Amino acid sequence: MTRLSRIAATVFALALPCLASPLLAGETMSFQVGVETVPGYLAKAPASRGNPGVVLIHDYWGLNDQMHGVVDRLSRLGFVVLAPDLFNGKIVSDPGLAQEMRSSLDEKRAVSIVKAAIDELRKVDHAGSRLVATVGFGIGGQIALAAALQGADVQGTVTFYGRVETTADRVAPLNAPLLGIFGGADFAVPDKDVTAFQAALKEAGKDAKIVSYPGIGHCFMDETRSDYDTEEAKDAWIQMRDWLAVKLVPQLPDRRAPARLVPRAPTPQPTP
């Protein structure tokens, strides 16, 4: 990391809005994807005009309150954040139903929605040159990667425990920097696949960083799931925050962050 990059990361790490807006929340909205009207959730901090954007892609539970909380949290870092609803309002908590949601998702449609959401973010405040990254969790991480491989106009991609590609030819179309964050004991995305993904990215000469937490399972960033891990989730959030700071190089006011990130108390549920 260059000295300029370290400075950018340091500035961004301190760039939370002032304490006067700790309860900043987003709003529901919708946008067009061809003939389909897609619902979504949009949040932005005051005076965020021109700031970088994030398209957040939810996991197979749907665009639930937990994902709304992640959107709000990212917006408090200064991002303009849009989370499209891939399941059109359907939310589940049962693992079996979640698996059905995963199976029913059409990747081509999902990628089209993500690309349209990226365009929609650049319409907010008429910021046509806004830098945008995608951040996805689980199946959302898989779709974030797929969108990047299929020509999405993004300046960064973050995939949290999404399924991956394992050969250099499959990752060759990737044009934007990538951050992948995984659990070393994740049954859904085995460690051997993550290792192969990392090797493929290196062989293809891509700008990529892979972080894997030994012994950690799937959904460890979701405080409502049984695999949630407080310390690793906090570290992974910081990894993402600082990486986005360097890759998107935002020009945000220097505002000091709280001393630590305090997640909501988890309500464990079974994870498929």
Structure description:
The protein is an alpha/beta fold and about 270 residues long. The chain has a single domain, classed as Alpha/Beta hydrolase fold, catalytic domain (Rossmann fold, 3-Layer(aba) Sandwich). About 35% of the residues lie in helices and about 20% in strands. It is built from 8 helices and 8 strands; from the N terminus they run H-E-E-E-H-E-H-H-E-H-E-H-E-H-E-H. It has helices spanning about 5-15, 65-75, 95-105, 105-120, 140-150, 170, 190-205, 230-250, and strands spanning about 25-35, 35-45, 55, 80-85, 130-135, 155-160, 180-185, 210-215. The protein has an 8-stranded mixed beta sheet, sandwiched between helices. A hairpin with a 2-residue loop joins strand 1 (about 25-35) and strand 2. Helix 4 packs across helix 5. It is globular. It starts with a helix and ends in a 24-residue tail after the last helix.
Helices, strands, pairings?
Layout: H1 3-13, E1 27-33, E2 36-43, E3 53-57, H2 65-75, E4 80-84, H3 95-104, H4 107-121, E5 132-137, H5 139-149, E6 156-160, H6 168-171, E7 178-183, H7 191-203, E8 208-213, H8 230-248
Parallel strand pairs: 3-4, 3-5, 5-6, 6-7, 7-8
Antiparallel strand pairs: 1-2, 2-4
